[in-house]
Design a protein that fits this description.
The complex is a heterodimer of chains A (112) and B (427). Chain A is mostly helical and 112 residues long. Chain A contains five helices and no strands. The radius of gyration of chain A is 18 Å and the shape is globular. Chain B has 427 residues and is of the alpha+beta class. Classes of the chains: A mainly alpha (112), B alpha+beta (427).
Chain lengths: 112, 427
């Protein structure tokens, strides 16, 4: 079977991406929580790595700042300037630490 | 017949052509223009994105994400760099097939790999004159060996640490045990004029840094000379009888069974024989290192108190049944799984169906060779209807067993070898 032509593929892509959100509070393109500061996080953090690396992690403001410093010292992240407080506010508010104790209960779905 | 195909399907079937369709013929340079117009933003490092990966900004739809050549059951944790883990029930094969081996990348894999012109350089402080080997040289000059070697990401199990540790949130699936074919690293090192001052080896690969900076090495780790000289330490070109797949290091990688998989460098271009502990990126700081002394959860540990992880701890999985199994009362359930123990072997696997109050010994197979994981099995009958958890606990040949809760907290969340648990309902 032949692959559809370029403009056709692009149309497919648009239909996939644009109405894709089933989670009203999450940005469908990045998976980030929709809240003040999201756009700057999407642009600055998503430039080098997937925003999935953001959404799967949890830390307080200080913890996120440490990660930013580590990326700046060793991974080539640029100075964030005025964007940094907005990024930290967003991350701490939306991806703050969770407590699961020494062993969390199993999350089981039974195939009944 | 023509039909519409989604982005993921296009990429799964023919990534290179999918990119051409989306972005035009000159794949990555044209991404810059193509993606910028799609996203209304500049894609800073677009030209360094590897062939075959869906551009992240486009990929994050609610459609399932599939990786070419991989079982669709793999869980993608991160798509730039690509990291994906294998659910326990898909690790049931005695020898892990290529499509079920976890993917852990630190950088961007090389594109347009040409095995015919691939060169491995051996250099370092204790090598007088750097030596260069083609793949053909390696195959012609040294004897080839095939071993089944278990590799596990140092951060496998990270998701359970509290306070949370940063990085890819692996659950249990960053482990596998394929069969590798290659030459012994020690044969190559000896032929390169190894001296007594050799302390460590460090690898370098052809992957590139995520930032796109060609001067930055994404990862360059290694092992002490004793592990390098172990007869099971390979420079491998084959996995399960085929060329190593592109995501796993084609055409050449090192494999150090039982050690953090980050020591088994992919797309291998250089091995440096060092007169000191190798100091490449991700050897220092908090990477692949844990506090030398146990610390309280959440402690601020200075870098000077961190020690490099060597052999991985004893661990096991229940690979059959899948968690969520519904069992008919009165029937026997044949449990089975895998167990491994870093540089050691597994002596025992015990199974509990009563939350650790009593344990029954499982049958444990001998490993195919040293550093291969071992299959265990046990028939179990449940005493009555209700909710059960099956816990598996392996013990290594030195008598060390897996803990039932998450072991010592460490800043980056390494070495969680707590017992695997699955849920079973008996009706």
């Amino acid at each position: 079977m032949s692959i559809v032509a370029a403009n056709r593929a692009f149309a497919v892509f648009l239909t996939l991406v644009l109405p894709a959100s089933v989670h009203a509070d999450v940005d469908p393109a990045s998976g980030l929580e929709i809240a003040p500061g999201m756009e700057v996080v999407k642009a600055q953090c998503g430039a080098c790595h997937s925003t999935r690396l953001v959404t799967q992690n949890r830390a307080d403001r200080e913890g996120w700042q440490k990660l930013i410093r580590w990326m700046q010292e060793s991974q080539g992240l640029w100075p964030l300037g005025d964007a940094e407080p907005a990024i930290l506010d967003y991350l701490a508010a939306n991806y703050g630490p969770t407590t699961q104790g020494r062993r969390a209960p199993l999350n089981v779905t039974f195939n009944e | 017949m023509k039909r519409e195909r989604g982005l993921h399907e296009l990429y799964r079937d023919d990534p290179a052509r999918a990119e051409q369709q989306l972005f035009g013929r000159r794949r990555f340079l044209s991404h810059l223009g193509g993606m910028a117009s799609v996203l209304c933003a500049e894609v800073v490092f677009g030209r360094y994105m590897p062939r075959g990966l869906i551009p992240a900004a486009l990929a994050e739809t609610t459609e399932p994400f599939a990786i070419a050549g991989k079982d669709p059951g793999l869980i993608v944790l991160n798509d730039r760099p690509l990291n994906a883990e294998t659910p326990a029930h898909l690790l049931d094969d005695p020898v892990t097939p290529a499509n079920r081996l976890f993917v852990r990348n630190n950088g961007t894999p090389p594109v347009d790999v040409d095995p015919a012109n691939w060169v491995l350089t051996i250099d370092g402080e204790v090598v007088d004159k750097p030596l260069r080997y083609s793949l053909a040289d390696l195959k012609a000059r040294f004897k080839a060996y095939t071993y089944q070697l278990t590799i596990e990401c140092g951060g496998n199990g990270r998701s359970e640490f509290d306070p949370p540790a940063s990085g890819n949130q692996w659950t249990t699936g960053a482990v596998g045990s394929p069969r590798w074919t290659g030459v012994r690293l020690r044969d190559v090192l000896r032929a390169s004029g190894l001296k007594d001052t050799a302390q460590y080896i460090g690898y370098y690969g052809a992957d590139t840094h995520l930032s796109g900076d060609p001067g930055k090495v994404p990862i360059s780790r290694g092992v002490p000379i004793a592990k390098a000289m172990d007869k099971y330490s390979l420079i491998a070109w084959s996995m399960n009888g085929n060329d190593i797949p592109p995501l796993h290091g084609h055409p050449l990688r090192v494999v150090f069974g039982g050690w953090p998989a980050s020591t088994s460098g992919k797309w291998l271009t250089r091995i440096s024989v060092r007169d000191r502990v190798h100091d490449g990126p991700k050897m220092g700081g908090y990477s692949y290192r844990v506090p030398c002394e146990p610390v309280a959860p959440g402690s601020d540990v200075p870098e000077s108190d961190m020690c490099i992880i060597e052999s991985m701890p004893v661990k096991s999985l229940v690979t059959w049944p899948k968690s969520g199994w519904v069992q008919t009362q009165g029937k026997t359930l044949e449990l089975r799984g895998q167990a491994w123990a870093g540089d050691l072997a597994v002596a025992d696997v015990d199974v509990s169906i009563d939350f650790g109050q009593t344990w029954q010994p499982a049958r444990v197979n001998k490993p195919a060779n040293k550093l291969a994981w071992q299959q265990w099995s046990m028939p179990v009958e449940f005493p009555g209807p209700g909710y059960y958890e099956v816990w598996a606990r392996a013990t290594d040949t030195s008598g060390i067993a897996q803990p039932m809760v998450v072991p010592g907290w460490n800043p980056k969340g390494y070495l969680n070898n707590a017992t695997h648990r699955i849920g079973v309902k008996v009706v």
